[in-house]
Design a protein that fits this description.
Layout: H1 9-13, H2 18-26, H3 33-50, H4 61-69, H5 73-76, H6 80-96, H7 112-118, H8 124-140, H9 149-162, H10 168-185, H11 213-226, H12 243-264, H13 273-277, H14 279-292, H15 300-315, H16 322-335, H17 344-352, H18 356-373, H19 380-398, H20 403-407, E1 415-416, E2 425-429, E3 440-444, H21 446-462, H22 482-497, H23 505-517, H24 522-529, H25 534-567
Antiparallel strand pairs: 1-2, 2-3
Helix pairs in contact: 2-3, 3-6, 8-10, 9-10, 12-14, 14-15, 15-16, 18-19, 19-21, 19-22, 23-24, 23-25, 24-25
Length: 568
């Protein structure tokens, strides 16, 4: 599904780098001095942020965007708003240097033919969705009856140049769908059907209902058994699975069965779980996923699937010979074990907060959001959202729990005020509420407690239900779903700090902050995060311990050099 080619006017006319672009702008007599200063300032600012000479910075916005992503936000030393404004002025400067197509100026009137046709669109969805195409066609003098695939491709090439390809595909899909709908529903609309972009090929997995009843029934029996529901059964699972893990296992079985059905040519061949775990079939399933993976390397999903198949073979499929069990174990061993430590993505995120200024901005972000909520410029709903996200971020900072625990906090259960409103608040999580089945308790004091009380006082005034048990609720009193809470937290940090920090990454950040302050305090991190085994903590954060050890060693070396220099 390729976009229309955009190799013409713009790429051939644009200078190769920003130094050449600046020279051409300065030589352009059409530019007034004020506009030239804006354009030249944008080029200098971008080059300063990138810490590169204009002569080596390409004049393509896509390339500049890619270079900007490589510069950590703290090193930019510019606000997100300044960066956005600078990019906008730079885009205008580069467009000024091209003779590519322009969009109709704001307020340009429609031709009589297009105005008459547009007035027939009583449905605002069609009117708004087709307005862009209509304005472009009218501005270019193209009649409604002349709109066809060739004209649309020309429009797409122009949009790719003007908007740097940012929304071309979305515009293509939407315009074709709405135009073709108008063809069949609007009297007098030109009877020309436009061609939509080809949909990308996607792997389609079958639902469990597509398999024989025997397979469906055994899957349900196995999932009930592995959840450990019947304590008095003659056979019980080695470790009963939590509901979330049972749901994950169900999905693993569905995907494995669907993949095997594709390999064998018919879902009817997948009659029971024994078929799935036969070594030859397990290899077919795992090979299919390896072929799809980047670099054909084992992923966490592939390793997890191999583990699930081996577990089923050992503890459920009783008829599998020992030799085949050994072969399955060998296959799993070939895939290797999960790498220890943080992923590259999590390491990148955490390392950004080694910058003390950025960390300070994050720590003060809840107060900033609360101040925005109290400014009086927002209506009740957005104000409550600001207060809610401010409190959620504050709690993740002082009590780095998992998102599902944060979203399920109740005023009548997990939140406790043993000394009344003036004393500390405690977040208490029972062992059956945490992933590692360990009870956790976090004191909420000082500014964190004050923010909690401010949020609750505001909440009680505006939420419709007065006896709501949940901490994080909507204006109608219903609990905020975990997905919405995650989205609000992540977007707030991205908007204010320019960094994408998910709720779970606050746990890694907490480990970094603790180990920065107390190198070697791995036991503190273990208890703070609620790990059952200290090996888990060591495996995750060994890299951070090495970094702190290296810092301490660097101080030792510096002291040794000082002594050596004094002695000489």
């Amino acid at each position: 599904m390729a976009l229309p080619s955009v190799s013409s006017p713009m790429s051939s006319i644009l200078p190769s780098n920003l130094a050449n672009a600046l020279q051409r702008l300065e030589a352009d007599l059409r530019l007034d001095p004020a506009r030239l200063r804006q354009y030249a300032g944008a080029i200098r600012t971008i080059c300063s942020v990138l810490d590169r000479d204009p002569g080596v910075v390409p004049s393509q916005m896509a390339a500049i965007e890619a270079l900007l992503k490589e510069v950590p936000v703290p090193l930019r030393r510019r606000s997100m708003k300044t960066i956005a404004n600078t990019k906008s002025r730079l885009k205008a400067a580069l467009l000024h240097l091209t003779d590519g197509p322009r969009l109709p100026p704001r307020g340009a009137p429609l031709s009589p033919e297009w105005l008459a046709l547009s007035n027939r669109l009583s449905d605002l969805r069609l009117r708004n969705g087709l307005s862009r195409l209509i304005r472009i066609a009218s501005y270019r003098g193209v009649q409604p009856t002349d709109v066809n695939d060739a004209f649309l491709q020309d429009v797409l090439r122009g949009l790719s140049q003007v908007n740097w390809g940012r929304d071309t595909m979305r515009f293509w899909r939407q315009t074709v769908a709405l135009w073709n709908e108008a063809v069949t529903t609007i009297d007098g609309w030109p009877q020309v059907t436009l061609t939509a972009p080809a949909e990308p090929e996607r792997t389609r997995h079958l639902p469990l209902a597509a398999f024989p009843v025997t397979f469906q029934s055994e899957v349900e029996d196995y999932l009930r058994w592995t959840a450990g529901g019947d304590r008095f059964a003659t056979s019980v699972p080695p470790t009963p699975l939590k509901p979330s893990t049972v749901r994950q296992r169900r999905e693993q079985l569905r995907l494995a069965a669907s993949t095997l059905a594709k390999c064998l040519g018919d879902p009817a061949h997948v009659t029971d779980l024994l078929v799935l775990v036969l070594p030859e079939n397990a290899k077919l399933i795992l090979t299919a996923y390896l072929e799809q993976a980047s670099g054909k390397r084992p992923t966490a999903f592939t390793r997890g699937l191999a583990t699930a198949l081996l577990t089923i073979a050992r503890h459920w499929a009783k008829n599998l010979p020992a030799s085949q069990l050994d072969e399955l174990a060998r296959v799993k061993q070939v895939l290797g074990s999960e790498p220890t430590g943080l992923t590259a993505k999590n390491l990148h995120v955490v390392r950004q907060f080694s910058d003390r200024e950025l960390l300070a901005r994050l720590l003060s972000l809840p107060d900033v959001l609360a101040a925005q909520a109290r400014s009086g410029r927002l209506s009740v709903g957005p104000r409550l959202q600001k207060m809610k996200i401010a409190l959620a971020i504050e709690l993740l900072l002082v009590a780095p729990m998992r998102l599902q625990n944060l979203g399920m906090l109740r005023l009548d259960q997990q939140l406790q005020w043993p000394s009344g409103r003036g004393g500390p608040v405690y977040i208490t999580l029972r062992d059956d509420e945490t992933k590692n089945e360990l009870p956790l308790e976090y004191p909420i004091t000082g500014r964190s407690r004050d923010l909690l009380h401010n949020y609750l006082d505001y909440l009680r005034r505006h939420v419709n239900e007065s006896d709501i048990p949940w901490l994080f609720v909507r204006i109608d009193g219903t609990r905020v779903p975990d997905s919405a809470l995650r989205d609000g937290i992540t977007k707030a940090v991205k908007r204010e700090l320019g960094v994408r920090l998910t709720p779970h990454q606050y746990r890694h950040l907490a480990a970094m902050i603790a180990l920065d302050a107390r190198p070697g305090a791995i036991g503190l991190v273990k208890d703070l995060l609620g790990h059952r085994n200290i090996k888990t903590t060591i495996n995750f954060y060994a890299g951070m311990r090495t970094r702190e050890a290296a810092r301490e060693y660097d101080k030792i070396l510096a002291d040794a050099r000082t002594v050596s220099a004094a002695g000489s």
